[in-house]
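Case study 2.
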Amino acid sequence: MGRTIALIAHDTQKIILAEWASKHKRILKNFSLVGTKGTCEAINNITGLNVKQLGHGPDGGDIVIANKVIENVIDVLIFFIDVRSPHGHEHDIQTLIRISVLKNIPMALNTQTADSIISSELIKNNKQKTMK
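Prediction:
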């Protein structure tokens, strides 16, 4: 399958991301999808998509995904964050965001940016990326 999209959301954002994924299901089904445990469960239950779990966020799942970004496995990061609530694993979250910036992968932290990415030429041309 071509590219891989990571889908992650904080607790207060899981339903919002699942609804977003449902709206874009026709496009997303053409990608390999991965995410953290709770987010995967929400998206899979609401959309019927098959998002593969890579661990629970607070238990290191964000770091597992950051490692996949380093390994050039993940091509796009959609991470709906909750900036109003503290997170015990804030360092892991910041590491994932920093690694994504360093590896220059498209990243959305809210619905507007996610909508822009999902409608972009990058997504329309779902081909395996070349090594950077």
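DSSP finds seven helices and five strands in the chain.
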